[in-house]
Amino acid sequence: MASAKECKALTAAGGMRMSNPTDRLDPMPALKKPLTIRLCQPRGFCAGVDRAIQIVVLALKKYGAPVYVRHEIVHNRYVVEGLQNLGAIFIEELDEIPADHRHCPVVFSAHGVPKSVPADAEERNLFYLDATCPLVSKVHKQAMRHQRLGRHVLLIGHAGHPEVIGTMGQLPEGAVSLVETEAAAHAFTPPADTPLGFVTQTTLSVEDTAGIIRVLEERFPDLRAPAAESICYATTNRQEAVKETAAGADLFLIVGAPNSSNSRRLVEVAERAGARMSMLVQRASDIPWHELGDIRTLGLSAGASAPEIIVDEIIDAFRERFDVSVDLAVTATETEEFPVMRVLRDVELTPADMAFVNGTR
Ligand code: SF4
């Protein structure tokens, strides 16, 4: 990470000198051109992701390897591989756990799981640790509350995303309808004589979601909102930081995985907010150096499941090719921390345990 003395508060980006295109064949030119990196803060790990990774690390420390993890604990290959190196085994379904490993813990991912999954684990007599983010659990409760009050539930989200599968799986089949777009909101036919309530996936575009809710509220004036905002603080803050920073950026890089919903939303937000070009990268090696063109100002942020160590790697890769100055663009201060479950609180978590994602800061 750029050290505090290397960063300065975000200033107007005027007065930059022009730089020539960088070339993959000449990654370290003798004369480096100036480049300002506008580094968004907040960025990267949210409290829910941090907690989920901590749960796997602490389970490994307490119970030893292997620890099974159902589904990618968070949507990031680097994190998954790091945990595999520590002794985690990733599976998609519980029946993949061999009979002689049923005493090993199995962790459910931060995205949440349908109710059938813990029920299945209990039936198989497995020891499970549920790393569902508390903010996703809150959405589950909101959906259940709507249903308890006799409402048909509209879930605004993306089909196939594990969080959506988990939320739909809190309620009986037919009790939830998924609405993905404004067009779908226009086309939705509600069940006859049933009041409606909505919830949303936590990682959506704030603007797109507002558009969908507007359509639904126009069509169904009695539609009931959840008791509290469903799009989470981390999604909102990361989108806001990118929005504030994007105007005038020649390129905006978002560190994140293609299957990370909140990372992909950040790419869209950067483009809408005025970045000339924006792209998702998982590692510095994904950066198409020869296609970057004449860049002088780079926006940089990371999705909620992307580790800071990759942000460092990317800044270092730019330092090799450019004369870099880093402007820290602070738009919010986050203090959220979600404690791990009681059974793991007796295990000490050291900075060294998390260095594989956080680096050695
Ligand atoms: S993005 Fe939000 S809901 Fe998802 S894990 Fe992070 S804090 Fe929780």
* Sequence of strands across the biggest β-sheet: 1-13-2-12-10-11
Ions, cofactors and other ligands present here are:
iron/sulfur cluster
CATH first level of the largest domain: Alpha Beta
CATH architecture of the largest domain: 3-Layer(aba) Sandwich
Largest sheet: 6 strands, parallel
Number of helices: 11
Broad shape: flat
- Over all CA atoms, what is the radius of gyration? 22 Å
DSSP helix fraction: 25-40%
Count of structural domains: 3
Structural class designation: alpha/beta
Overall average residue pLDDT: 91
Run of helices and strands: EEHEHEEHEHEHEHEHHEHEEHEH
- CATH homology-level superfamily of the largest domain: 4-hydroxy-3-methylbut-2-enyl diphosphate reductase, catalytic domain
Within the CATH hierarchy, at the fold level, what is the topology of the largest domain?
Answer: Cobalt-precorrin-4 Transmethylase, domain 1
Low-confidence runs of at least 5 consecutive residues: 1-26
Strand content: 15-25%
Distance between the termini: 8 Å
Count every beta strand, where a strand is a DSSP E run of 2 or more residues. 13
Description:
The protein has helices at residues 47-63, 77-86, 116-123, 134-148, 162-168, 182-187, 206-219, 233-246, 261-272, 308-321, 355-358; strands spanning 7-9, 33-41, 67-70, 88-91, 105-108, 127-130, 152-156, 176-179, 196-200, 251-255, 278-281, 297-302, 322-330. It has 361 residues and is an alpha/beta fold. It has 3 domains: 31-45 and 233-330, 3-Layer(aba) Sandwich (Cobalt-precorrin-4 Transmethylase, domain 1), CATH 3.40.1010.20; 47-133 and 337-358, Rossmann fold (3-Layer(aba) Sandwich), CATH 3.40.50.11270; 135-219, Cobalt-precorrin-4 Transmethylase, domain 1, CATH 3.40.1010.20. The strands form 3 sheets. It has a 6-stranded parallel sheet, sandwiched between helices. The chain has a 4-stranded parallel sheet with strand order 4-3-5-6. Strand 3 (67-70), helix 2 (77-86) and strand 4 form a beta-alpha-beta unit. It is flat. The chain starts with 6 loop residues before the first strand and ends with a helix. The site of iron/sulfur cluster has 15 residues, from helix 1, helix 4 and helix 8.
